[in-house]
Amino acid sequence: MPTPNTRLVTFLEHCRSRIDTELECRLAMSGNSSERLQQAMRYSVLGGGKRIRPALCMAAAAAVGQSPGSATVPACTLELIHAYSLIHDDLPAMDDDELRRGRATTHIAFDEATAILAGDALQAMAFGWLAEAPGLDDQIRLAMIRELASASGHLGMVGGQAIDLESVGKSLTIDQLETMHRHKTGALIAASVRIGALTAPEVGEEQLAALTIYSQTLGLAFQVQDDLLDIEGDTTVIGKPQGSDLARSKPTYPSLLGTAGARDYLSQLLDSALSSLEGFGKEGDILRDMAGYVVARTH
């Protein structure tokens, strides 16, 4: 039997290959709109990235007894939403970042207007792809669209970004910080897992509830590790300027809990995420491996 690390590396490589191939194929057939706009869209989506959300989606499908490949198109839509959010987050009106994934952000590589339009187009494209995802019946597609809309809109990711912008330079409690990140980061991660699980028509409410706890906890863990990397990471490894959150006086877990306290909290979140999967057998092993990966990653 492969070790957890070997098993996860193999799974992530398979997911990345499958997702990147699907994205490249579909984006190459994106129509006859502005060539510059399409270049910006491809630049933003195909320019690297860990593909964590698509991998979680495919791992969740496996956890409920489905082939990971059955979640390929839904997983791709999550990457489109993620890419759109990064384009907009990096804009001068938002975080004003010039580096993403080790290269120029979209508004620097192209221009601000094109970046905004590329993000808009990717968001719309995600729902179009999901509405026509092959191998799924209409009720499942509709349920997935609801999940993605809720997670990416004002009740999820966009709402969290608004709270983030309003919180710069302010003192937040740990509860307020968690509320922000459950929306900004956690909502799309939770949707990734739930959408993957929805590929199984017979998935039960107990399974969905357990996977929701897992994904919400993992979403917080992802952000805690992100905050730690912002103060401890290497710009050449993390792909964005080290210390950028500190420079903008953004509230973070280390700033509230201290570095040691943030690491302790990260360990607690990992334990909670793993505990939520106790009802799953070996089919949940990749999700368990993913939890360990998220809290140990270096970029």
Automatic annotation (TrEMBL):
One of its GO terms (biological process) is terpenoid biosynthetic process. It comes from the Bacteria. Pfam families: polyprenyl_synt. Its cofactor is Mg(2+). Keywords: Isoprene biosynthesis, Magnesium, Metal-binding, Transferase. One of its GO terms (molecular function) is metal ion binding. One of its GO terms (cellular component) is cytoplasm. Belongs to the FPP/GGPP synthase family. This is Geranyl transferase. The lineage of its organism: Bacteria, Pseudomonadati, Pseudomonadota, Gammaproteobacteria, Pseudomonadales.
